[in-house]
Amino acid sequence: MSQAKSEQPARPNSTRLAILIPFAIVTLIWGSTWIVITGQLGVVPPTWSVTYRFLLGGTAMLAFAAAKRQSLKLDARGVGFAALVGLLQFALNFNFVYRAELHVTSGLVAVVFALLLVPNALLSRIFLGQRLGRQLLIGSGIAMAGVALLFVHEIRNDPSGGGAVYLGIGLTLLGVLSASTANVMQATKTAGRYAMVPTLGWAMLIGALADGIFAWITTGPPVFDPRPAYVAGLLYLGIVASAVAFPLYFGVLRVIGPAKAAYSSVIIPVLAMLLSTVFEGYRWSLLAAGGAALAGVGLVLALRARRPAR
């Protein structure tokens, strides 16, 4: 007698690697950016630092697209799409995040940003019709429990205390909502009509233009810090963390969906704290270690779930 149930064929290893390798690269890169961003604050107003970052990143992406002989032209609809992504992802999101780090530690901002998976999942369900399977929901619950433990640990150990903590959290949540909207846009049919690299390049430049206008209005003419540490950090954020990481991340997002792609934001705080242990003397507690472990378990469960159905 033949088997009653036909088993769904497993994804080829090459397909899994095509998802897991860029996912791991992006997570490692963005896990390090929280420390680098703190070095961008001080002499240069935050919005000018954001402007320089995406001016550099957008230029690098368009140069790469031109070298690959990809067309840099966009029709009116493509320009509108790139402009909206630029304003949400590369203007609002990062201005909120950079300002949040003026009030709270980079570790706390990274922990709060892990909540990205919640609006990503909800918006995907509302606008893309993606159903969330039981395993994905269970993994989300476990991971969010881990994030909650990390959050409690950071709140208890944050030196600023008082209203500054909640102001920083509020700014980060606004950044999360902006980024989530841009994430879901990348999974739409409109995004699939245009080549990713040149479209993101224009989005970064449009975002940089908006950042520059806002910076000039609120803080005055451009300010630059010639210190090697600032310049090196700017190059890392503009080239590696933007021009390299965003195409990799959005490429994965288009395959596995915004909800599962956002799990990079769950493991990133753990990496940020590991790097902080090495470079900033971060001290782990049982609470933080337990939170990191739960986040990792939830991540594995969620990523092993089936791709979201439309």
UniProtKB/TrEMBL annotation:
Stretches that traverse the bilayer: 20-44, 50-67, 79-98, 104-123, 135-152, 164-185, 197-217, 229-249, 261-279, 285-303
First-listed, main subcellular location of the protein, grouped into a coarse class: membrane
Listed SUPFAM superfamilies: Multidrug resistance efflux transporter EmrE
InterPro entries, sorted: AA-Vitamin_Transporters, EamA_dom, EmrE-like
Keyword tags: Membrane, Transmembrane, Transmembrane helix
Family designation: Belongs to the EamA transporter family.
Membrane topology according to the record: Multi-pass membrane protein
Cellular localisation: Membrane
Name by which UniProt lists this protein: EamA family transporter
Domain EamA: 23-151, 167-303
